[in-house]
């Protein structure tokens, strides 16, 4: 947090606000206006992408709570999203619960599952923990495809369309509002969390676990809480996918999903909420942009245009490598640089 | 009256004996120095007290001012911290990506309440708690003259300042007893002097019992009420700075003895 000329806080309360400076509030307002106007001007194609971004933002914030903020590497993102999706779907299909209740229960159950698979974190760190969470991924993937009695195996599960006051919620326009609400709620929750006691303990465990324990942080509880909190939102993202597509297939929740989400938070910025959103947006938009670029080049450079669809995976990889090399702190840091420049603008000390 | 009693503490790592029946008493309100040559086991003593090492034998008992007796040697570190034992480390163990303020707020962790849900919603009680503890932290910031660094990221601070922040974080815990592991290591003469003053201030103004390890004998002799000397995991001397300074056993431990000398 840097000081801005002419802004004086006279109470701790205002100093501790999430957006203590006028400029930050203005930026937020501009963004809010954009979000409110967007669905009325955008076509279905872009609206669908926006919905995917909203879902990915929830999932990426969830993963970032665990990986970026608490420093516990997880390859089980796909598995936890699957638990959220399948629970939310099956509770409605088999137990007849309203979709809202199913989603809430799915979050809680994923949270419990995350806590269980987080148990190895008490002994394992870094790569070793990553392998342990990989086991979770494999177990859940196996259960999805083989536990036919419950999950239907490799067959897709079709859900009834969710509706609220008679409005079908899985249309791109209606879901947009639901998605934005969930993403904003998740972001606000996480932002609050990391300015209060437990959130600080999460970060302390990441930065220096021995010092954290000596200052009074219960490592055992804190790590499990991080897994529980993270999985809650990851489960929510899974449940959102289930009700947006109204179809659940196991292919959506494979190890590749885990890696794509890791890419989101690396590209966006580890330990950053706005970074989770940036990463989710970029990684979601990237394939769409490549496809569109291919179409645009169809006439002028058909060779390139024909190659592009195949190059998608490669471009994806290159983007990640470029970020790791040139800006390991991700888009969040780049955005911070832009803000810092205008922070003192036009009175910059030097022009770089 | 003593605040901490260590009896017959033995600590072994495989075949290496770090502490061999070490016994020590810390009196309430004193500034005690723990000195000894490299590898004598000073840091091991602190690690046993704060629960990072488990001694194979012996007892550590904390007598908190309200009269409770607590056996520390089976407790995990966070429980020991909650009893009012705070410490700093030889190699500065701060939360590098957090600001000074956040580091100090973590010092309040054991005194605060509130979990994930309360924090995430940030309503009513949790909000008041954060503000209330911010006030305590600001007091410590005042006390340690850290105002200009308040919102700086700790990892970017100069070495000497990092040491001050680490001590401030320990102070934020409102400790009954403060363990300082080489607080002046790697500092120049001026920084050492200012650190020594802070230690004295903490001891006198805030009335905290302090146990300090240091290699700078001059600093130690200047500030401490009592000195305990360790060598090879045993206490070899104990007393006022003057007594210890002139103790032949201590001089031997530090300077060695020519072969053939008779004690």
Textual characterization of the structure:
The complex is a heterodimer of chains A (about 350) and B (about 260). Chain A has 15 helices and four strands. Chain A has about 350 residues and is mostly helical. Chain A has one domain (about 40-345): ABC transporter involved in vitamin B12 uptake, BtuC (Orthogonal Bundle), CATH 1.10.3470. In chain B, helix 3 crosses helix 5 (about 125-145) and helix 3 (about 100-105) packs parallel to helix 6 (about 160-170). In chain B, a hairpin with a 2-residue loop joins strand 1 and strand 2. Helix content of chain B is about 40%, strand content about 25%. Chain B is α/β, with parallel strands linked by helices. Classes of the chains: A mainly alpha (about 350), B alpha/beta (about 260). The interface of A and B includes residues 12 and 190 of A.
Main attributes?
heterodimer, A: 352 residues, mainly alpha, ABC transporter involved in vitamin B12 uptake, BtuC, two-stranded antiparallel ribbon, 73% helix, 2% strand, B: 263 residues, alpha/beta, Rossmann fold, 6-stranded mixed β-sheet, 4-stranded antiparallel β-sheet, 24% strand, globular
Brief digest:
Chain A is an all-alpha fold.
